[in-house]
Specification:
By secondary structure, the chain is mostly helical. It is about 70% helix and about 0% strand. The protein is globular.
């Protein structure tokens, strides 16, 4: 079964994965990353670089296809 996700849903899935990793490890670095990735009420990430970095990664992956 192939699943399709848009960029936002894929970001949410990655964040959920990192939350699980954080719960197991209590890594301060991962905790800081998760704080930057919080989606605010306006739909933007707490750190705007988190979203732009994510979109750069998405673009690189899509270029490989």
């Amino acid at each position: 079964m192939q699943m399709m996700m848009n960029e936002k849903k894929a970001f949410e899935a990655m964040r959920l994965y990192l939350e699980g990793f954080y719960e197991r490890t209590k890594s301060d670095d991962v905790g800081a990353l998760l704080s930057d990735m919080i989606i605010l009420a306006d739909g933007k990430t707490a750190d705007s670089a988190a979203w732009s970095d994510w979109m750069e990664c998405v673009q690189k992956v899509m270029e490989k296809e």
